[in-house]
Amino acid sequence: MLFSRLIVRRIRLGSGLFLLLFVACHLCNLALGLVSVDAMERWRGALLMPWQTSFGQALLLGAAMVHASLGLASLASRHSLAMSRTDWVQLLLGLATPPLLLNHVVGLQVTSDLVARFRADYGYVLAVYWRYAPLFALQQLLVVVIVWAHGAIGLYSSLVLKRAWPRLAPIVIPILFAVPILALLGFAHAGEAVLARLATDADWRALIEQNLLIRREIGYRLGVIQVGVFLVYGVAVAAAVGVLAAKMLRRRSMRVMVSYDGGLTALGRIGMSVLEVSRANDIPHANVCGGRARCGTCRIIVPADADLDAPGEAELATLHRVQAPTDARLACQAHLLGRAVSVRRVYPAFVDATAAREPGSWLDETEANLEAVR
Amino acid sequence: MRTWLISLAGAVASTASSAASADEPAFQRLAGSASAGVSANLQALRDDFALAPFEAERFGAAIAAALRDGTAVRTVTFALILVVVGAGLEWLYWTFAAAPLRAVVNTTATTPRQAVSLALRRLAYLGVGVALFTASTVGAAMILPWHPNVDTMVIGAIALVVAVRSAWIIAEIVVSPHHPSLRLAAIQQYQSGFLVGGVAWLTMLAAAVALLPQLTTTVGSAPHLAEAIRVAMGFLITVSLITAVLIASRQEDRGGKERRRRPRFPKGLIASFVIVATAILALVGGGRIAALLVDIAIVAALLGASKRIVFFFWRDVVGRDEEPATEKLPDMLPLIVLAVVRFATLLIGIAGLILIMRVSLAELATGSNPLAQFAVHVADTVALAFVVYLGWIAIRFAIDRRLRQLAPLDPHSPPTENTRLLTLLPLLRTTLAIVFVTLFTLSALWTLGIQIAPLLAGAGIFGLAIGFGAQTLVRDVISGVFFLIEDVFRIGEYIESGASTKGTVEHISFRTVALRHHNGPVTFVPYGLLGTVRNDSRDWVIDKFNIPLPLSVDSEKIRKMIKAIGENLALDSELGPLIREPLKGKLYRVDPGVKIFRCKFMTAPGCQFDLRTAALKKIEAALVGAGISFAGAGPQTILVRRAPDL
Fold first, then answer.
1. Shortest CB distance from B81 goes to which of A129, A181, A192?
2. Does B64 touch chain A (CB under 8 A)?
3. Could you tell me which residues are beta bridge partners of residue A256?
4. Which chain A residues are Cβ-neighbours of B85 within 8 angstroms?
5. B contact test, residue of A144, A282, A347, A369 with most B CBs within 10 A
6. Rg of chain B's alpha carbons, rounded to an integer?
7. Which residue, A106, A102, A57, is CA-closest to A219?
8. Number of C-beta neighbours around residue B32 at 10 A
9. Share above pLDDT 70 across residues of chain A, in percent, rounded to a whole number
10. How crowded is residue B501: how many other Cβ atoms within 10 Å of its Cβ?
C-alpha cells in the first residue's frame, strides 16, 4: 500500500470533517430562512462564498473525491459483510449521497460556473424548489438528512473515543441536532415567503423564469456532465462491490476455525479478521469503534505462534496507547491466514466508550473475571 | 383439564344446536340476509375495481397539485424534521443504552424462567427506545404548523412505524434468533430469522390496511381505490400468512429419521384452510363473520398450544412435551399458570365474540340477544371451571405434599403414628375429585340453562331399578365410611373378621378392603360383609406359654430363674424396647409327674412371636445349665424301690 493505514485513516477522517464543516455552513445559511430570504442572501457572502471561490471549489471537490474513494476502497478491502449496524448505516448513507446530491451541485454551482449571467441566489433556488421542480426539492431535503446523519455519526464515532468527549458532548450534541432541524425549518419558512412573492411580484417572477431559461439552454451540457459523473461513480461502486464479492466467493470454502475463551468456536474464512468472525457467528465481542483499530476494546490475547498477519502501524499505535501486553492483538486487525487460532477476549462484550477513553477503567474488573475463569 | 374442555365443547355444541332449532325463524332470517349481503358485497367489489383506475388518476392529479402549491414540499420537510428528532433522540438514547442491552443479551440463561426475566429487561430497554421515538415524533408533530388535514395523516404514519417496530421488537425478543438460550418459545433456529421478519412484514401490511382510508380521504376522496387496494393487500396478507403458517408448522426433517415418526395432526393444512376461508368470507360476506371465524380459530389454536407454551417455561422441571409424570410430582405453579392462561384465552375470546357481534350492554343485561346470552353463559361456565380447577389443584397439592412429607406407606412394616393419615388422605383425594367433578358438572349444566332438577330426582322406574341394584353398594360404602371414621383399622394392621377372613390391611378403596393373609393370598372384603372386626395390631398383646418341668424341681428357684431371664431380656438392645411388661413365670398347675409353669409377657402387637422364641431359647439354656430337663408328656418311668425287709 502506498500510505500506511494510519495515514489513510486520518486523511479519510480529515476530508470528512472538512466536508461536514461545509455542509454545516450551508445548512446554517439555510436556517437563516427563519429570519427572511434577504437575511439568507446577506449571510451567503460569509457562509457560502468562501467555498464557492475556485480554490474553495477545488478543495471541496478534492475532499469529496478523496473521501468517497477511500470509503469505497475500505469497502473493497473488507473480507465479509459482517458489519455493525452503525457501519451499515454509514455505508448506505455514504453510497446514497453522491447520486442524490449531484443534480443540486450541477444545477446550481456548475451552471453558475459555466454561465456568468446565471444568478443562483436563494430567491431563485427556493422558487425552483417550491414551485418549478418540487420533486428535486424532495430529493434535496432527503439528502440534507442523509448527509448530516452520515457526518454526525462519523463525527460522534471519532470524538467519543477522545478523553475530552464528556466535556465536548454537551456542546456538540445539541449542535448536531439543531443544525438540520433549523435548516429544514428555515427552508420551509423561506419557501412560504418565496411562494407568496411569486404570486404577487410579477417582475421578480420574470427574472426567475429568465434564469430558468438559461438553465434550460445549457440543459444538454449539464445532462452530459451528470451522466458522466454517474458513470464514473457507478463504475467505482461496482468495482468496489465486485472486488468484495469476488474475494468472498473465492474464499468461501477456505474455512478457518477460531476458538474462544469459554469454549466457544466459530468458523471464518481466510482473510477475515477475528472480529468479523465473531460478528458473523454471534460471538459476543466488544468493539466500541466498530473495527477501525481506534478503541482497543476488541483486544484479544493470542499465543505467540498464532497464524495471524503481522500487526500494522495503526494497530501498534493503539496497542501502545492502551498499554496492552505484548501477546495482545486487536481482533479487528488480526486477519486469519489459514491455520486455526485460539484467542482469549479481554473485555466483556458490553463495554462502552469509557473503555476506550480510559483504557484502565474496565480492565481491573475484567482481569479479575478472567482470573476467576482460569 | 382436558376432559372438562371436551365436555365443555360437547355442551357448547349441543346447546348451539338446540338454540339453532329453537330459533328457526331467526336463523332463516339471518341466512336470507346473508345471501342478500353476499350479492351486494360482490356488486360493491365489482364497482370498486371498475372505478379504481379513474380514482387513481384523480388521486395522482391531487398529488401533483399538492406538489405545485408547496404542500408536499412542506409536508416532506416537516416529516424529515420528525425523522431527525425521533431517530436522533433514539440514537442518543442508544449511545447510552446499547452497552447494558448488550450485557443482557449476552447473558446465557440457565433456566427458562431466567430467560423470561432477561426478556423483560430487554423489552424494557427496547421499549424505552420506541417510547422515546414515539413521544418525540408525536410531540414534534404537534408543534409543527402542518397544512390542514396533513397532521392526521402524519400521526397515522407515525402509528404505522410504531406498530411495526413494536411488533418487531416483541417478535425479536420472543424468537431471539441470535441468542437461542433467551428464546421464549419452542422455535427451531432455522425458523427464527424468518419468523421475526414475517411478523414485522405482516404487521406492516395490517397497519397499512388499517391506515389506508385515512390517507385517501386526506389527499383526495377515493373510496373505491382504497377498497381495491385493501382487497389487494388482503390477498397479500393471506398469501404471507399461509406461507408463514406452513413454514412455522414444518417439522424439522433433518435428524428425524432415527426418532419414531408419528402421524401428526395436519395443523399447517388446517390453519391454511381457515385462513383461506376467512379471506373468502371477508371478501364476500362482510367482515363480521370473518372476524368471528378468526376469533374462534385463534382461541382454538391457543388452547391447543397452551400446554406446550406454558410448560416451555418449566421444561427443566416438567418433562418436555409429556404429561406431568405421576410419580414425579410437577410444581404447582406451571399447572396454575396453565389454568390461568387457558381461562384468560377463553374469556378474551368470548369477549372478542361479543365485541364482534356488536352486542350493546343493554342487550347483554336484558338477555334479549340469544347468541350473546349463550356466550355469557359459556363465559360463566369457563369461570366456574377455572375456580373449580384452581380449588382442585390447591387441595390436591396440599394432600400430595402432606403425603410426601410422611414416609411412603409400606403395609408390612411396623405401624407408625402417621398410618391413619396415610390411610385416609388418598381416599380423601379421590372423594374430593368426585365431589368437584359432580358439583362442576351440575353447576355447569345449570349455568348453561339446562334443567338439572329432573336429573337429580332421577328418572322414575329406571332410577328405582338402579336403586335396588345399588343397595349392597350403598351399604358397603356407608359401612366403609363408618369403619374409617371409627378408626377400626388402618393400612398395615392385621385384622380378623369371622372365621376365615384375616390378614394385613393392604389397600382401602370405597367399597372393599384388601387383606393379605399371612400365607400370601389377598382377600377383598366388602365393608358390608366385614361385620365384627378383631384388630390384632392395636396397642399391645399379652403372650402366655407353659413350661412343663419334673416334679422334683424347686418352684421358687424356677420362678426366680424365669424372672431373671425376663429382666435380662428387657436389657437386650433389640428386644428390650418392645417389652411392655417383662417375662414372668410361676407354678400354674401340678399334674401327675409334671409341674406346669406358666410364663407371660406384654409386648407391642406383632412382636410376640419373636419375643417368645427368644424367651424359650434363654429358658432352655438356663435349664440345661441348672441340670434340669423338661418333663416329658408321655408315660413316665417311675422307679419304685422295694423295701428289702418288709
1. A181
2. no
3. A268
4. 177, 181
5. A282
6. 42
7. A106
8. 10
9. 95
10. 17
* C-alpha–C-alpha distance, residues A79 and A243, integer Å: 10
In the block, which residue shows the cell 475556485? A54
DSSP labels for B248-274?
HH----TT-SSS-------HHHHHHHH
Nearest to A138 among B73, B81, B98 (CB): B73
The model's pLDDT over A174-206, given as tens digits with 9 standing for 90+, comes to 999 999 999 999 999 999 899 888 888 888 888
Q: Report how far residue B114's alpha carbon sits from residue B377's, in angstroms, rounded to the nearest whole number.
A: 39
**Per-residue pLDDT, B620:** 87
How do the residues of chain B divide into helix, strand and coil, expressed in percent and rounded to 5? 65, 10, 25
Q: Which strand ranges, in their side-by-side order, compose the sheet holding B494-497?
A: B522-526, B512-516, B501-508, B494-497, B534-535
DSSP label at B138?
A: H
Rounded CA-CA distance B125/A30 in Å is: 37
Q: How many CB atoms lie within 10 A of CB B637?
A: 7
Per-residue pLDDT, averaged over B510-525, amounts to 87
DSSP of A297-351: TTEEE--TT--BPPP-HHHHHHHHHTT--TTEEETTT-BB-SS-EE-EE-S-TT-
Provide ipTM, 2 decimals.
0.89
Check if B402 contacts A (Cβ < 8 Å).
no
Tell which A residues from 253 to 282 touch B, by Cβ distance under 8 Å: 282
CA–CA gap between residue A169 and residue A159 (Å, rounded) = 9
CB-nearest partner of A350 from B84, B92, B103 = B103
B88 contacts in A (CB within 8 Å)?
176-177
Whole-angstrom distance, CA of residue A13 vs CA of residue A21: 12
Output A322 or B457, whichever has higher pLDDT.
A322
Binning pLDDT at 50, 70 and 90, where does residue A97 land?
very high
Mean pLDDT to the nearest integer, B456-475: 74
Contact between residue B148 and residue B217 where contact means Cβ atoms under 8 Å apart: no
Pairing of strands B594-603, B579-591: antiparallel
Cell numbers for B415, please give them: 405401624
Instruction: Give the helix/strand (H/E) hosting B226.
Output: helix B223-249
Set of cell numbers at residue B315: 421444561
Q: Do B99 and A350 touch (CB under 8 A)?
A: yes
Q: Do A350 and B92 touch (CB under 8 A)?
A: no
Pairing of strands A341-342, A255-259: parallel
* pTM score of the predicted model: 0.73
Contact criterion met (CB below 8 Å) for A314 and A9:
yes
Q: pLDDT, tens digit, for every residue of B571-610?
A: 888 777 888 888 888 888 888 878 888 898 888 888 888 8
The model's pLDDT over A128-173, given as tens digits with 9 standing for 90+, comes to 888 888 888 899 999 999 999 999 999 998 888 888 888 999 999 9
Nearest to B425 by CA among B490, B494, B482, B516: B490
A 90-149 → B contacts, CB under 8 A:
129-131, 134-135, 137-138, 141-142, 144-145, 148-149
Nearest CA in chain A to B176: A282
Each as own residue / partner, the long-range contacts of residues A317-321 (CB below 8 Å, 24 or more positions apart, any chain) are A317/A6, A318/A293, A318/A294, A321/A296, A321/A359
